[in-house]
Structures are given as structure tokens and as C-alpha cells.
Write a structure and sequence with these properties.
about 230 residues; alpha/beta; Rossmann fold; 6-stranded mixed β-sheet; 8 helices; globular; binds adenosine-5'-triphosphate; ATP hydrolysis activity
Length: about 230
């Protein structure tokens, strides 16, 4: 696989069936580095993450992950059933399925990764609790721990800070800083300008098109102004 210093999207067109969402999107995301994706509701941010995961196959254009092998994906909390009758430890362990396959017995290494990821997000005391008994912010931390347990090169996050209090948001930001320092490439959809500003790079989408890309301060300034 080709190894570059970037994830490169070239003229990507993608959507759902006959519904086109992303239209001719070209962008270059630093690798390693943190890229935030901002834009109004429905502008195609989650669809872009779907393309990067490979779940959504572009109808046109190309995606070059720059050699990123393992991809971790952390969904919006709403997208995940809170009713699953599993514990926090079981949910985080699901992050190991990507390398082991579902229903396989986890190795000692897998179990150690799961414990480390729970500890990083202060989930160890909740390890035996059912997901359904957790608060929204705690569940959000479980989803991130599950993403980290995949030991990804490329970590894709869909609004991981939504609805979190300041302490939990700071904690997640700290964990993402650590991952970035370890060389993980992070792509992060957010509506939070403070989170977007901390990134290395920012993409502004509108109507499925790239309106601007570059340093967050410049791009966010652009997003404050009416398009045109
Ligand atoms: N599974 C789907 N089938 C058909 N259309 C979809 C599907 N998922 C999203 N869409 C449509 O694609 C468009 C872009 O949605 P997407 O979720 O990518 O936007 P977004 O920028 O992430 O929005 P938000 O900020 O609200 O999360 C929307 O018009 C949405 O209705």
C-alpha cells in the first residue's frame, strides 16, 4: 500500500443510492495530524466519514488513505443502540473484533488493550456496568474507548463531544491529544468551534461541497461569513 504524508481525496462523489451527497470533493488531510470537519447540518460531514471508513463506496473519484491500515470509527451516540444488554468491558472488547473477528476468544494482549483503553477514559470502575445504566456522557466515553481499542492508524470520530460537560470534553480532548502524539491520524466531525480550532487542519463543507480547507482559524472565520 502506498505510504504518503496525507489522506488524499480526489474529486469524490458519493451518497446513498441515487441520492448524491458529496459532489466532487477534493481534500488533503495531514497524516499524522488532526483534521476537523465542520459545516451545517446535512452538509455531508458524516457521509465523508462513511467514505473514509470504506462503508460508503464513492460513485466517482478516489480516496487514498496514505498507507493507513487500521481504521477506527466512533459513531454518533444516537447511532448506537443504548439498549444492547452488554457491559462496558464487553462493549470496549468489541473494538478488538476488527483484528480478531467476532466471537473469537480474545488473547491476553487483546484483554490488556481493553483494560488500557478503559483506564484512559476513567471507565475501569464502570467496567461491569451495563451500557443501559450509564449516562450519555459515560456512553460517549465507552464508544471512544471502543474506537481506541481498535489501535487505529486513522481514527474517525463523529461529534464525540456532543452533550458532554466541560470535564468530560476536556478528558476526551486530552485522550485525542495523546493519540495524535502517538502518530494516529484523527478526523473529527464537530460543531464545537473550540474543538475545531485545536486541530491541525480543517475542512468546511456546505451542500456536499468543500467550501474551504486549511488552518482552522482561517477556515472557521470563513464559516462565520455568508457563503458567496
Ligand atoms: N442513510 C441515508 N440514506 C439516504 N440519505 C441519507 C442517509 N444518511 C444521510 N443522508 C442524507 O445525506 C445528507 C448529508 O447527511 P450527513 O449525515 O452526511 O450530514 P452531516 O453534515 O453529518 O449532518 P449533521 O450535522 O446533521 O450530522 C442529508 O441530506 C441526509 O439526509
Amino acid at each position: 500500500m502506498k505510504v504518503t504524508d496525507a489522506v488524499v481525496l480526489s474529486e469524490v462523489t458519493a451518497g446513498y443510492g441515487r441520492r448524491t451527497v458529496l459532489r466532487g470533493l477534493s481534500a488533503r488531510l495531514p497524516r499524522p495530524g488532526v483534521t476537523t470537519v465542520v459545516g451545517p447540518n446535512g452538509s455531508g460531514k458524516s457521509t465523508l466519514l462513511g467514505v473514509l471508513t470504506g462503508i460508503i463506496r464513492p460513485a466517482g473519484g478516489t480516496v487514498d488513505l496514505g498507507g493507513a491500515g487500521r481504521i477506527g470509527y466512533v459513531a454518533q451516540r444516537d447511532a448506537v443502540s443504548d439498549a444492547l444488554p452488554i457491559t462496558v468491558r464487553e462493549a470496549v472488547s468489541m473494538g478488538r473484533w476488527a483484528s480478531r473477528g467476532p466471537w473469537r476468544r480474545l488473547t491476553a494482549y487483546d484483554r490488556a488493550v481493553v483494560e488500557t483503553c478503559m483506564a484512559a477514559l476513567d471507565l475501569t470502575p464502570l467496567a461491569a456496568h451495563r451500557l443501559s445504566t450509564l449516562s450519555g456522557g459515560q456512553r460517549q466515553r465507552v464508544l471512544l474507548a471502543q474506537g481506541l481499542a481498535q489501535e487505529p492508524d486513522l481514527l474517525l470520530l463523529d461529534e464525540p463531544m456532543t452533550g458532554l460537560d466541560a470535564t468530560a470534553a476536556r478528558q476526551i480532548a486530552g485522550v485525542l491529544d495523546q493519540e495524535r502524539a502517538r502518530g494516529v491520524t484523527i478526523v473529527h466531525v464537530t460543531h464545537d468551534p473550540a474543538a475545531a480550532l485545536r486541530a491541525d487542519h480543517c475542512l468546511l463543507l456546505d451542500g456536499g461541497r468543500l467550501l474551504a480547507e486549511g488552518p482552522p482559524a482561517t477556515v472557521l472565520h470563513r464559516s462565520d461569513r455568508p457563503a458567496g
